[in-house]
Amino acid sequence: MDKPALHISLFSDYLKPNQVVFDLKSKDKVEAIEELLDVLAKQKLIVNKKLILTRIIDRESLVTTAIGYGVALPHARVDSEDQIAVAVGRSDKGIDFDAHDGQKVHLIILVVWNPTLPGLFNHLFAGLARFLIKPENRGRIMAAKDKTELYEILSGIEFRFIHEEKIVSRARLLKKLQEIELKRKKASKEQQKELQKQAAMIREEFDKDVLSRFDRLMERYGFAVADAVEGVCQSCNINISTQMYSAMEESNDIYVCENCGKYLVSAKKKKK
Fold this sequence. Notes:
Elements: E1 6-10, E2 20-21, H1 29-42, H2 49-62, E3 66-68, E4 71-72, E5 75-77, E6 84-95, E7 105-113, H3 120-132, H4 135-143, H5 147-155, E8 158-162, H6 171-184, H7 189-203, H8 208-221, E9 225-229, E10 232-233, H9 242-249, E11 255-256, E12 263-266
Parallel strand pairs: 2-6, 4-7, 5-7, 9-12
Antiparallel strand pairs: 1-8, 3-4, 6-7, 9-10, 11-12
């Protein structure tokens, strides 16, 4: 059987030097997102800044886009002429993004992309996560002396585009979808509209296979996502393999319990 075609792209294909802010002036996440959108608007990469800001903030209100380790990936899918628009901001002092690990965010990568490209963000997310999860890479970013050096580090990040590849991520967002679907069963007609809007926003970020499995589990068992606490699946109370649980602690990817088949999400860590 032939291997799937592999296309390697670099972050420099999407990110240009004038889309990087070396020292963000903003002190909170809404201001920071708006500051990065101003960069994209100035470069004429986006048209309706107000609409995009609203979409991003709505998305943040569902589940934080902070992925841990001082990194956040705020994003939105909107109709636009360009396929994708990216802006990156670095903050020395850090910005509170309600991160699950309790850490302030020092690197914000904002992505706006066209709805006609549903798989693009998943590939970008996976490539960025692979790079940023390594302490040495985050260390290089924070040690950068100026905008030029920061751009050089970021521009070399690789993205691997494989047509058959199923990149699955944002486990806590899938759990949020479960919470919304459960609320919809008891909601009034007026509440249904808002819940439907939130559910649709989340569903945009997952491929059909993930959503199909999610819906089947919800229909059969009433829930599809279970917490993993101290290495134990809270759905079936069976121990998860040490290797899997360790991987879950180091990422926000979705894992499936080998015993009960539910999606697993690592329990949220308490802020110190």
